[in-house]
Amino acid sequence: MANPLAQAEFVLSANALAQLPKDGAAEVAFAGRSNAGKSTALNALCQHAGLARTSKTPGRTQHLVYFRVGEGRYLVDLPGYGYAKVPIAVRDHWQAFISRYFQVREPLAGLVLVMDIRHPLREYDQQMLDVAFKRHLPVHCLLTKADKLGRGEQSRTLLQVKKELAGRASVQLFSGSAKLGLDEARAVVLGWLQAGPHNEADAHG
């Protein structure tokens, strides 16, 4: 079956809300620690090796990077967090910008939170979850690099993360390089894009 995400193409990068698209199209954001495999996951989901920038130097993504998926839909690559070696002023700007983005960005339909299966639910991950929960935004967690663990350890970690999330977010095993969990993750992202923006009125209605 054809992969609709394979249409993804770079549109713009932004470091201010005024620079974001104004067409109201639904968008799904991808967030994660700088070394969690976020860019690799995006590239694998879109079957496009050079779409999102990957680097051995954590923290290379320093803007919100928008990719258009067909008409009226976007994927958004958020700056990696945790390891980026940048000036404090730049990091403070990112944090304020991202926080404001989640508060006011109406077209936002969901958040994909990328976590290394060997180091899940670290402090920054928890903070990102809290921001999404305050917005009543659906969250799907990818436990990346799952191929680095044996099947027994994969299952144990998956169950533990599910227990800690207590139903507040969905979670799955994932490996871009081993092509593990691609169909499941694509189904979640496409479902959000097709359903459209999610807001507090929807959550309570």
3D structure, described in words:
The structure is a single chain. The chain has 6 helices and 7 strands. β5 (about 110-115), α3 (about 125-135) and β6 form a beta-alpha-beta unit. The chain has about 200 residues and is an alpha/beta fold. Mean pLDDT is about 90; it is low at about 55-60 and about 200-205. The chain has a 7-stranded mixed β-sheet, sandwiched between helices. The relative contact order is 0.18.
| Computed Rg | 16 Å
What structural class do you assign from the helix and strand content?
A: alpha/beta
How many strands in all?
7
Low-confidence stretches: 55-60, 201-205
Helix segment tally: 6
Strand order of the largest sheet: 1-3-4-2-5-6-7
| Strand percentage | 15-25%
The average pLDDT is 88
Q: Write down the overall geometry.
A: globular
Note the run of SSEs as H and E. EEHEEHEHEHEHH
Distance between the termini: 35 Å
Largest sheet: 7 strands, mixed
Bin the helical content. 25-40%
